[in-house]
Amino acid sequence: xxxxxxxxxxxxxxEEAPVELRCNYSSSVSVYLFWYVQYPNQGLQLLLKYLSGxxxxxxxxxxxxxxNKSQTSFHLRKPSVHISDTAEYFCAVRRSGGSNYKLTxxxxxxxxxxx
Amino acid sequence: xxxxxxTPKHLVMGMTNKKSLKCEQHMGHRxxxxxxxxxxxxxxxMFVYSYEKLSINESVPSRFSPECxxxxxxxxxxxxxxPEDSALYLCASSQLGGTDTGELFFGEGSRLTVL
Lengths: 115, 115
Fold this sequence. Notes:
The complex is a heterodimer. Chain A is mostly beta strands. Chain A has no helices and 12 strands. Chain A has strands spanning 3-6, 10-14, 19-21, 23-26, 31-38, 44-50, 56-58, 64-68, 73-78, 87-95, 103-105, 109-114. The model of chain A has no long low-confidence stretch (mean pLDDT 92). Chain B is mostly beta strands. Chain B is built from no helices and 11 strands. The relative contact order of chain B is 0.33.
């Protein structure tokens, strides 16, 4: 089984400041890793994913995450946040390949960007 | 078309009512999912259908009855619900097999209130 730990339940930052949302996972098999974002009263949107290959993955809106196998981490970073980045961010893990399609979520981190 | 469409967006029902939530996708995905999300919590998996067959039931009470009439549609039939079943119900879909890109595509959700 897989598990995900998001170390911070809330992260308040000021606009244009850098931010890091931390995610650690546990699994005995190879995994896919994801960051999803949920804006208020909306569904989940995929922000970025790591399947294989380059350990640094980027999104179109300036976020990036780095897969670190030795530290079993997949932290999300952005060098300069905007008010519009205020949302709940979920890290998730899924077993790679096979027929197990269960996506396990962390408890979420509420990012609040203040002016 | 990269959307998962859920209807209705909001539903209020009494404990003796029978209602249904509907989900539709036209991305050719062969796996479809129901998740339940309580306020300030991560989504919890309820059911997974792969190739129109129920493959995962996370010990969900029988008052929730899923149905997958075809590869594009997923229903969740609701009967004799309890107030604690009030939540956001999220539908998702994903590819399967060799075309699997790992991620789930989520709808906007149906917000259910049980009185």
